[in-house]
Design brief:
Layout (H helix, E strand, L loop, with lengths): L1 H26 E5 L24 E6 L10 E4 L7 E7 L4 E5 L2 E4 L2 E2 L10 E5 L5 H4 E3 L8 E4 L2 E5 L11 E4 L7 E2 L5 E2 L8 E9 L5 E8 L2 E9 L7 E9 L8 E9 L6 E8 L2 E6 L2 E7 L21 E6 L2 E11 L9 H5 L3 E2 L4 E5 L9 H4 L2 E2 L3 E10 L5 E2 L10
Antiparallel strand pairs: 1-2, 2-28, 3-4, 3-28, 4-26, 5-6, 5-25, 6-7, 8-24, 9-12, 10-11, 11-24, 12-23, 13-14, 15-20, 15-24, 16-17, 16-23, 17-18, 18-19, 20-21, 21-22, 26-27, 28-29
Amino acid sequence: MRSERISRLLWALFALVCAVLVLKFFVADAYRITSGSMRPTLFGGAIRPGEQPFDEWVLVRYRSGVVPNRFDLVVVDREGAHPVVKRVVALPGETVRILDGDLLIDGERLPPTAPRPAPIVVFDDELQTVEDYFDWQGEHDPPRWRHDGLVWTLDAKDVPQGSNAGMMLYHRELRDDYIDPEGRRVVGRRTVNDGILECEFSTRARGGRLRFELVEKGDTFEARIEESKSEGASAHVLRIVRRSPSLKGREKVLAETKVQIEPLRWSAIRFANIDNTLSVTLDGALVLRASYERNEPHPLAPEAGDQSIGPRVGFGGEGLRARFRHIRVLRDLHYTAAGDPRNAVKAPLRLGPDEVFVLGDNSRVSNDSRHFGPVRISDLIGRPVAVVWPFARMRRLRAVVSTAGE
């Protein structure tokens, strides 16, 4: 009897080993991330000099020979190189170009409705201190801005229209920063163009105007919410306006619509500028969108270096009392012009019928198609579907989660 039990146990162990081997070689496997090229989507390597490596393990589902979708995460296994995780940005037969941090497909930026990867958080008031990242103008008695915990209260009843005295302005440069797994800001080196402001607000007085601001190069874009004088207390007008050097002090309304804002009730706003498209989302619903052809240069910008001067993000108001909380600043993926000039860095590159172009999310340190060129579809051996280690960081991986501004 004992020998029979041992025999059954051995057969069970043998079956288990066979099942594991079948899964490993034909279905899925776990890969260790050892570099920082995909941060903050995936973490690997030491985040700061002298620190221990923070390597995540991902579960990869084998899927060889299948044409991926744009922005899919894939494992690339090129001959003579170690397998690496990258993101597919261009598909067979397309032309691809990296220009001013953006991705151009067949000579155009992606349309506003195209699915995109999630934007990257560079500031979160639950992780960082607002006073360390934002400034407000001048001294005032009593102070216009007060805070109680994570809620900031603005009294701008005496602020005249057009003044920045009621604005909270992000004074850090908008760079390719990201937040590490411990909630610390990792400072980037490259200035990025596309920014997003998120927060919640509530108004505490009739009249006045709420202002949410994004700056890129010589352009200042504002989403403004003000009471509609001809309708009830909850009826407001939302406008997207532009100030540019060529307008010589004037403003241009790019789009407007009517919205309902209940006094004293918290509302969530997201104001985004992604790939030359501005959008405003209120309480999770896209309510206004406007596109523009190109940015105007700032008259004081140097020929080389940062092309945006001064604060890039702001929020506040004039002629009202309001509260703000859950403040976040985000950025779009930004691709640098490093690598071989022939690989879409200096000119468009046409992909073959069985080729894709792959990039790393942490473009500044990534070795990808900008360096080694397009990748054959046959070299894509699978798709990462989840982070499985460390336990505290376990999560499902999603290639795209948003469209521009949504």
